[in-house]
Write a structure and sequence with these properties.
The protein is an alpha+beta fold. It has a single domain, classed as Immunoglobulin-like. Helices cover 13% and strands 30% of the residues. The protein is built from two helices and ten strands, in the order H-E-E-E-E-E-E-E-E-E-H-E. The strands form three sheets. Strands 2, 5, 6, 8 and 9 form a five-stranded antiparallel sheet that branches. It has a three-stranded antiparallel sheet with strand order 7-4-10, with no helix packed on it. Strands 1-3 form a two-stranded antiparallel sheet. The radius of gyration is 33 Å and the shape is rod-shaped.
């Protein structure tokens, strides 16, 4: 029995020296990624003068943007069909030019897209960046080749440019 009490006393002595810590064994981290918000501003409806090979139709801009970041961009696809008339069978093809400088420009075709780059403050760049050579271009004009005007039959023609915007990473 003495032996039993000696062992019990030794266990009690060691137990009294031990520090029991009751703490969580994990750390949970949380965050909320805000949704991207923006206003896409596109050129207004316009009358294109017959024979004009270059007409400034205005720039595409983005305002009131938030929730963007480096690597989270706004992609805008421009789509259109040639000018068409309800009364005649001819069409008038066109393209949209974007300029870096007077000597350096890019010709957009229907289905091409542009990027507004996400910025560290949550906004996007106001001018768009061409995806191939990383230069900032601004849409400056609408263009029709002079020989395409000459192939068109007399009549009233209409074309619509559709802008499709999506947030991409």
């Amino acid at each position: 029995m003495k032996k039993f009490f000696a062992i019990l006393l030794a266990v009690a002595m060691f137990a009294s020296m031990a520090t029991f810590v009751s703490a969580a064994s994990t750390t949970t981290l949380t965050t909320t990624v805000p949704g991207a918000a923006y206003t896409l501003n596109i050129p207004a409806d316009q009358e294109i003068e017959f024979g004009a090979t270059a007409t400034n139709i205005g720039d595409i801009t983005v305002t009131n943007s938030s929730g963007f970041a480096w690597g989270k961009n706004l992609k805008v696809t421009l789509s259109w069909e040639d000018f068409k008339s309800d009364s005649v069978s001819s069409t008038i093809p066109f393209h949209i030019n974007a300029y870096y400088s007077e000597e350096d420009y890019y010709v957009l075709q229907s289905g091409d897209y542009i990027y507004f780059e996400g910025q560290s403050d949550g906004s996007v760049s106001n001018l768009w960046v061409h995806w191939a050579n990383d230069r900032t271009y601004a849409i400056k004009n609408f263009g029709v080749a002079i020989y395409d005007w000459g192939k068109a039959l007399a009549g009233d023609y209409t074309a619509t440019i559709t802008y499709t915007a999506e947030v991409v990473v």
